[in-house]
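Running log. JK asked me to keep both predictions on one page so they can be read side by side. First protein, sequence followed by its tokens:
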Amino acid sequence: MARPRGRQISVTQQAVRLKTQFPDETAPTVKANRLLWSVTLQPTPMSVSYTVRIRYEHRGRPKVTVMDPELETRPGQGLPHVYPGDELCLYYGDDFVGTQHFIADLIVPWISEWLYFYETWMTTGFWLGSEAPHPPGTAKL
């Protein structure tokens, strides 16, 4: 596989940016080119606070799960816009490339937006966020 050219954002640089942007949160853990971080997000002033875990491996897709509170579903429906293991589906294709984009600048705001859409879906039954097609078995819509 060819190595991408140009400036590459390292896992350590991702961690520094997260700590800089979220100084009140615990610093991310970086080990063996992997990042693990938990953050508390509240999408709106009327929302509950969610504890979210982000796992990121250099050149991989950030894997985001809500740890607390446990996400509920509507009667007879599964959780929308998640990958297996209830990892949040936040973007389509190459909208985020970890060697070019910062998690703090794109992924964290997208998590808050997903949580807002989740809360709206719980109330109305409609997912108000944009939708992208997924290969069968890779994400639930």
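And the second, directly underneath as requested:
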Amino acid sequence: MQIDEIFRAKVWTQESTGAWHFVTLPKELSRRIRTLTTGQRKPFGSFHVKARTGLTTWETSLFADAKRGAFLLPVKADVRRKEKIKPGDMIEVSVSFGL
């Protein structure tokens, strides 16, 4: 089964390093993903996805964040450069993964 979801989220940076940029998936979508991927996630609750924003597609992993009760999607530096994304920007993102 292929899952494709589109959402809007604000780009933020990890406080400890400043180098990692993320978007937080909506809580309802995170709950659905958590249910669908039970037993399939790797360490740190991660699993492989394909993401897209604008015209740029990249492969990465979603990471479970217990503090936020949601999954986090890293936005790679190359993606941010190509799409001219900076912290605080609201972006539309699609994530795809197979089960």
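Observation for JK regarding the second prediction: The chain has a mean pLDDT of 89.
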